[in-house]
Amino acid sequence: MVGKRSTTTCCAPLRETVLNHAGASELAMGFAALADPARLRLLSLIATAPAGEACACDLVTPIGKSQPTVSHHLKILTDAGLIHREKRGVWAWYRPNTERIEELRTALG
Predict the structure, then answer these.
(1) First to last CA, the chain
(2) Long-range pairs, 65-69, Cβ under 8 A, ≥24
């Protein structure tokens, strides 16, 4: 038939519900934190650390950035809820927030 649209779809939708403003803002904060190569590498280093956590002292050299720059990126990842930070003596230790990472993964379908 000419001019008539099909009401069936070829694929199932990625999500069952539409994001509300608060949900979209929360997800956007997480994705924005990941929108930088250095932060993606930091999260990767932390997530693959043999002990399940990484010391800030071990993250500067692999990233190839100055310590203040690495600290800045770690703060952004922490503020976005992607990593947890624990202060031990003079060093901070980081571990992935698997629940938050899974939220972002789920949002992508």
Answers:
(1) 34
(2) 65/38, 69/38
| In a domain? residue 44 | yes
pLDDT computed for residue 3 by the predictor: 57
How many domains does the structure of the chain reveal? 1
pTM over the 0.90 mark: no
Instruction: Assess if residue 93 is contained within a domain.
Output: yes
pLDDT of residue 8 exceeding 80: no
CA distances to 20, 32, 38 from 73, rounded to whole Å, are 28, 12, 7
Q: Write the CATH number for 67.
A: 1.10.10.10
If we measure between CA atoms, which residue out of 78, 75, 70 comes closest to residue 95?
A: 78
Q: In terms of residue numbers, what domain contains 101?
A: 22-107
